[in-house]
Design brief:
2 copies of one chain form a homodimer. The first copy, chain A, is mostly helical. Chain A is 76% helix and 0% strand. Chain A folds into 2 domains: 45 residues, Arc Repressor Mutant, subunit A, CATH 1.10.10.60; 130 residues, Tetracycline Repressor, domain 2.
Chain lengths: 193, 193
DNA sequence: GATTATATTGACCGATCAGTCAATGTGAAG
DNA sequence: CTTCACATTGACTGATCGGTCAATATAATC
């Protein structure tokens, strides 16, 4: 199987898992929708869980690239970019196929802490908070780590509520809280945009 | 089937669904664990989805009773009770069997907006925000509805992160943000505990 | 063009899925 | 004690689950 074929398989599997859920999506459906026989799939992924892990790796890469790039496009300063995250989220919530966060859902369906899927889902969140902390540091926050964790809190809350309510308004609500946090946590430092 | 037997069945099914997930829990397992034959279960619940709906009704009632009572026990004033929610959440996160929010997980596994399970899961969150808004009003908040939505945001974010990270620290982080919100949104009104 | 190594396949495995049915057990009314 | 309405059961359905295997197609090597 060529590398491009393999990538396409993972991308199509991602859509199926994202739309229908992990347990609810059978490997027969994956085979049918990708046009690759089940035997071939199992030649490249030893188990369904391994395919899911590959899907999560792709999602992690794509989502990170998209979010961080969008934050940079929307603002010039570190603190502006932190706040712009919620504008980016709002755009995401408004997309047609939006169905919540794939990692939250993966963690919800594979709850065992020893499960590799569970661990990988949380690793995505740790990667996010690291990025936030980096930005917060450059923004001159009093406590960059604490601020980053609070931003993650707001982001996850907004995603969950947006997915459950089928509305994008949580993004703006989260941003208003985030603005307050930034204003509070950067007191005494430069606050210019 | 007596009312108590039925209630016990739902309670045991709740534990199974909460621990293993909805799709991952088969009706044969429910029958085995409850000691009630599958035929009998289907005499009282026409489909698995109806059993899940009954489970969610029980969870809604139990969680609401527990949370609201705990908030009242931990504080005397409306605004104190709002902040005490996060102390109650921390207690929950530290419980042995904590596995996240059942409604978030239900919404994640049944994503179709037309699905009754999806709708009922969101109804639970609307019930919560109504209660928060009521407390915020009595606390003299400038914009009770906005404050209630922000509290929901923090609560859902804290639950998701606590479940994914297998740690209770998100509760304190959310409370610190909530304190800032209360201090900010109640400016000009009484702020005594 | 023959040989060989590798991809790919449809058919199949036992287990489990949600849900059903004929048969049996049970308790109250007569 | 009999009857009758109803609750409960184990065994079963066709479909689907994750995963496998012998056979075939394909492509590279000589």
């Amino acid at each position: 199987m060529s590398q491009s074929k393999r990538a396409e398989l993972i991308r199509k599997a991602l859509l199926l898992f994202y739309r229908n859920g992990f347990h609810a999506t059978g490997m027969d459906l994956v085979a049918k929708e990708t046009g690759v026989s089940k035997t071939s799939i199992y030649k490249h992924f030893r188990t369904k869980d391994e395919l899911i892990l590959a899907v999560l790796r792709l999602r992690d890469e794509e989502f990170r690239n998209w979010l961080f790039r969008r934050m940079e496009e929307l603002a010039d300063t570190p603190q502006g970019q932190l706040l712009a995250m919620f504008d980016a989220l709002e755009e995401w919530f408004l997309e047609d196929g939006f169905k919540g966060c794939m990692f939250i859902k993966a963690s919800a369906e594979f709850q065992n802490p020893d499960d590799a899927i569970n661990a990988q889902a949380y690793a995505h969140k740790r990667m996010l908070v690291d990025h936030f902390e980096n930005l917060a540091t450059h923004a001159g926050a009093e406590n960059p780590h604490a601020l980053a964790r609070q931003f993650l809190l707001l982001k996850e809350g907004a995603i969950v509520i947006a997915a459950m309510s089928h509305s994008e308004s949580a993004a703006r609500e989260a941003k208003s809280v985030a603005s307050l946090l930034v204003a509070s946590g950067l007191v005494g430092t430069q606050r210019t945009a």
